[in-house]
Amino acid sequence: MKIIRDYQFVAPEDRGASAAIGNFDGVHLGHQAVIDIARAAAPDAPLGILTFEPHPRQYFAPTAPAFRLMGAAARASRLEKLGVKRLYELNFTAALAALTPEAFAQDVIADGFGLRHVVVGADFCFGKGRAGTAEHLQDFGIRMGFGVTVTPLVAHAERTVSSTAIRQALSDGDPRTAAEMLGHWHRIEGPVISGEQRGRELGYPTANMSIDGLHPPAFGVYAVLVDVREGTHQGSYHGVASLGVRPMFGENRPNLETYIFDFKGDLYGTALSVGLVDHLRGEENFDSLDALITQMDADSLEARRILAAL
Asked: How far apart (Å, rounded) are the C-alpha atoms in residues 281 and 173?
């Protein structure tokens, strides 16, 4: 997959794609439906995605609570697995935000990327002040020479599949409902960072990962699936993870600490992907380290039981 970030300097071979447009946070079932339609709309064209980085919501409200389900690298990885060949990841700047809907259609879609066909959801809005609608885009496509397909919103279990609904399920400690809407386990991805090695001292060495910039799922302990993406330990594993602020040990920045079952090795700096399967319990403050270890033993047994049944 090739990533193109500037619509003003596009190589000829990167033009002419059939592209789905949107933020694609989580790459959920609704997004996947839009991508499938883009693929079918022009089978002989490269399959593309037109998206934005940072997310426009981050740009307009930089101090608001973190809301993203995945970072840019995780999104790109997921899109590549779906067969996307051209990722048009536009730098979302003041200049881009100021484009009127018509200017965006002309300068970015038609003249810049030369897209052959675009696919958007029924709730798609674009241009300055989000003034452009899917219907406006269809009108621009007729005038400017690109095809437009508008897809209905996807529903699951009588609810509309959306990033908002997925965030709510995760906040409720319900990763399985989130996974049903995503079409995959919700994953936290990134490098293993240095921790305070308390887990090692307790007999549970953990791989620590930052959740900065991401929507925080319910704090507590999870049964997890772990993919080590690189290095000598590359592969898939089962584990149990604690997500939160570790209240027994003072004030701490939220992070994810994963204990990988039956694993020995150094993972510092290694890229991990941790899929949340079940929320076992909330975060607790124990009276003693012995009580904590006893609970960790029970958590591990329960996680092994759950993951063995997948």
From this structure: 9
Task: pLDDT tens for the chain, 310 residues: list them.
Answer: 999 999 999 999 999 999 999 999 999 999 999 999 999 999 999 999 999 999 999 999 999 999 999 999 999 999 999 999 999 999 999 999 999 999 999 999 999 999 999 999 988 999 999 999 999 999 999 999 999 999 987 776 667 889 999 999 999 999 999 999 999 999 999 999 987 666 666 778 999 999 999 999 999 999 999 999 999 999 999 999 999 987 666 667 899 999 999 999 889 999 999 999 999 999 988 888 888 889 999 999 999 999 999 9
**What domains are there in the chain, each with its CATH number?**
2-156 (3.40.50.620), 185-308 (2.40.30.30)
SS3 210: strand
**Helix intervals (H) in 82-205:** 94-97, 101-103, 134-144, 163-171, 175-182, 198-201
